[in-house]
Amino acid sequence: MTVVALLYDVARLDEKMLIKELRERARLHLIHVPSSVLEMGRGPGVDAALERCVSHYNAVSSAAAAESWGARTVNTAESIALSADKAVTQALLHRAGIPTPRTMLAYSVESAVRAARDLGLPVVLKPLMGSWGRLAALAGDEEAVRAVSEHREYLGGPYRVHYIQEYVRKPGRDIRAMCIGGEAPAAIYRVSSHWITNTARGGRAEPARVDGELEDLVVRSCEAVGVEVGGVDVVEDPERGYLVLEVNAVPEFKNIVRVTGVNVPGLIAEYLVSRVRR
Length: 278
Hints:
five-stranded antiparallel beta sheet; single chain; alpha+beta; globular; four-stranded parallel beta sheet; 25% strand; D-amino Acid Aminotransferase, Chain A, domain 1; Rossmann fold; Dna Ligase, domain 1; 278 residues
């Protein structure tokens, strides 16, 4: 029987559903990363590993450890690292010809203001790394851009790079679509009166139809970043259609399961085990 490791740091509902589905298909080895010692090149004898750590650094390092054991690791450390950096993700999406909102990088407060002026206010300022809409700001005028940028410069480190994106006038929602092994089996609308629509920030989940155009865009986005199992965030522009915001290599899917009825954790478990058997 296939032996699968589940690498995790917080056992959310998503991980609990995965545990159930994996146990039906394989012998499961649970690894709670924060309380474990992982030796590079010498592992517990698993055929595959599913990376589910919430912490970015836990995820990248433990995926790297699993890869060093020779385990078929989903997702890889490299793809997790690439997808976590918004600028790198943007570069890979552009190279793949995938439409995204206009985005600029600035390296000082004054250049951030110039970038916002070029994009046209309002603009969205985001940290290079982050999830759930944390530290994202909607700036409606140049003084707001200046204030947010100055604050981030004082934070230092990666916050000194200003990631500035056009504000897409989406129809009160965005899309989170799942991609599993080159297919997009399910998606939801995240609906909110607030410009941040993440369900973790109060957005309401509703089922979304995955048409051919959306599936193609989602699959190509994951392929561009090297992600096998991912969540792709998409906005709908009234004139340009679908635009990809980012790719998440450790996606939450509980709301997709709840509102669509699609057994996402079962599909993930089946994909992982089938990849080992090939």
